[in-house]
């Protein structure tokens, strides 16, 4: 889907992605990617789109980070978990916190970002890792569009990164929320772009 702004949206300026991007694959853990999970959905198309994107990123030497929500005790994110009790399955050592097997060739100890809250930036090591790599642009994908993807996008902007959110590579259990969140991100915080455009961008690096 493409995002169409309307007359009542603010005028936006053109953003050009930089020469040093990174991919942030948000919460493709089993807890969200497996439809058997109470947090999950049928996200097979998004998994396949991400696999294509990650393969292309790897071929172009673009760094990739995978975020996952992990809890060690009841105190962590207690209000968030009270609001969404299904999050309580995301205990360290459980199947649910592991990144989906489709991405196992690309996952390592250094590119996993553990988090307690929606944003992959909040109280994590992500910003410092990106700074070390001199990253200037973020290619953001993941689950879910209206939750952790949007939160990561907003925080990416607040860290002054150029952000692109990939349409086919994000998914949500609520399609209305998915569409509205893509609209809002494109209207204010990022570019919402098709996978094909990002694949060409990687080739140009």
UniProtKB/TrEMBL annotation:
InterPro entries: Isochorismatase-like_dom, Isochorismatase-like_hydrls, Isochorismatase-like_sf
Taxonomic superkingdom: Bacteria
Alphabetical UniProt keywords: Hydrolase
GO MF annotations, alphabetized: hydrolase activity
Record Pfam families: Isochorismatase
Positions of the Isochorismatase-like domain: 22-193
Protein name, UniProt field: Isochorismatase-like domain-containing protein
Organism encoding this protein: Brumicola pallidula DSM 14239 = ACAM 615
């Amino acid at each position: 889907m493409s995002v169409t702004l309307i007359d009542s949206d603010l005028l936006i300026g053109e953003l050009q992605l930089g020469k040093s991007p990174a991919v942030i694959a948000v919460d493709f853990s089993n807890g969200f990617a497996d439809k058997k999970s109470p947090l999950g959905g049928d996200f097979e198309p998004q998994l396949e789109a991400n696999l294509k994107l990650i393969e292309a990123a790897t071929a172009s030497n673009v760094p990739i980070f995978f975020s996952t929500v992990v809890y060690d005790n009841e105190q962590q994110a207690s209000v968030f978990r009270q609001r969404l009790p299904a999050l309580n399955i995301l205990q360290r050592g459980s199947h649910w916190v592991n990144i989906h097997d489709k991405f196992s060739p690309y996952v390592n100890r250094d590119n996993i970002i553990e988090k307690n809250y929606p944003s992959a930036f909040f109280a994590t090591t992500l910003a410092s890792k990106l700074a070390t790599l001199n990253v200037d642009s973020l290619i953001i994908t993941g689950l879910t569009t209206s939750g952790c993807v949007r939160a990561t996008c907003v925080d990416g902007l607040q860290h002054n990164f150029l952000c692109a959110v990939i349409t086919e590579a994000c998914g949500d259990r609520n399609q209305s929320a998915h569409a509205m969140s893509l609209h809002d991100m494109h209207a204010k915080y990022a570019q919402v772009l098709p996978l094909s455009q990002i694949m060409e961008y990687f080739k140009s690096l």
